[in-house]
From TrEMBL:
Organism phylogeny: Eukaryota, Viridiplantae, Streptophyta, Embryophyta, Tracheophyta
Purpose of the protein: Vacuolar Fe(2+) uptake transporter.
Catalysed transformations (reactions): Fe(2+)(in) = Fe(2+)(out)
Localization annotation: Vacuole membrane
Protein name, as recorded: Vacuolar iron transporter
Presence of keyword Ribonucleoprotein: no
Keywords assigned: Ion transport, Iron, Iron transport, Membrane, Transmembrane, Transmembrane helix, Transport, Vacuole
UniProt family annotation: Belongs to the CCC1 family.
Entries under Pfam families matching the protein: VIT1 (PF01988)
Species of provenance: Prunus dulcis (Almond)
Entry's transmembrane regions: 53-75, 81-107, 145-170, 176-197, 209-228
GO CC list: vacuolar membrane
Entry's Gene Ontology BP terms: intracellular iron ion homeostasis; intracellular manganese ion homeostasis; response to iron ion
């Protein structure tokens, strides 16, 4: 009896330690980090609206004003003429971007409201409460004023880069080179920021933005130089 009691006590205190044949068989829950779970569950398409307004606004401001200043610099060596043209482009572009974004988002909102009303009429109000609540939340996402302000600010931030670069350079050719270099660096930064926030390819995003900016500046400079050399007085 004493031997049997000792055997029962030993089996009660017995602890089994699982042994895995290789590392791949081990549980993976412990190695998964919280940020990895967040990346898997987060819907990055929710960032589309403000990301498009901010990144594209900054890119448009940079390319538009830099191209405008390159065009003026192709026929005028005066730094004042370049700065005035760039500043006018900044103000006009920021207003245009804000108005355009406001109208675009508001139009999208009106279309979604009209579609929701048509769906309710088609179903005779038979939609579930959860479906109606989901549609109302979807309608709350577009914010025309927020998108307009974001576009105007982003455009201004991008447009300031070439303006600051040209403001302190008196030599004409050096001024043009500085504008191109600063625009190139800023384009890479804007493309990288957009790719990082949207979890897209960094290389492809930067390449698209950079090539597009170079083409815009080169075409504007070349055509303005051509027109200026054709006898048109500036």
């Amino acid at each position: 009896m004493a031997g049997q009691g000792a055997l029962e006590q030993a089996s009660t205190n017995h602890i089994e330690i699982p042994v895995y044949g290789n590392v791949a068989d081990q549980p993976r829950q412990q190695s998964q980090r919280p940020e990895d779970e967040e990346d898997e569950t987060f819907d990055y398409s929710q960032r589309t609206q403000w990301l498009r307004a901010a990144v594209l606004g900054a890119n448009d401001g940079l390319v538009s004003v830099a191209s405008l200043m390159m065009g003026v610099g192709a026929v005028k060596q005066d730094v004042k003429a370049m700065l005035l043209a760039g500043f006018a482009g900044l103000v006009a572009g920021a207003c245009s971007m804000a108005i355009g974004e406001f109208v675009s988002v508001y139009t999208q909102y009106d279309i979604e409201v009209s579609q929701m009303k048509r769906d309710e009429m088609r179903t005779n109000g038979a939609a579930t409460e959860n479906a109606q609540e989901a549609k109302k939340k979807k309608l709350q996402l577009p914010n025309p004023a927020q998108a307009a302000v974001a576009s105007a600010i982003a455009f201004s931030i991008g447009a300031v880069v070439p303006l600051l670069g040209a403001a302190f350079i008196s030599e004409h050719k050096v001024r043009l080179a500085v504008v191109v270099v600063l625009a190139t660096v800023a384009l890479v930064v804007f493309g990288g920021v957009g790719a990082r926030l949207g979890r897209t390819s960094m290389m492809k995003s930067c390449a698209r933005v950079l090539v597009g900016g170079w083409m815009a500046m080169a075409i504007t400079f070349g055509l303005t130089k051509l027109i200026g050399s054709g006898g048109l007085e500036m």
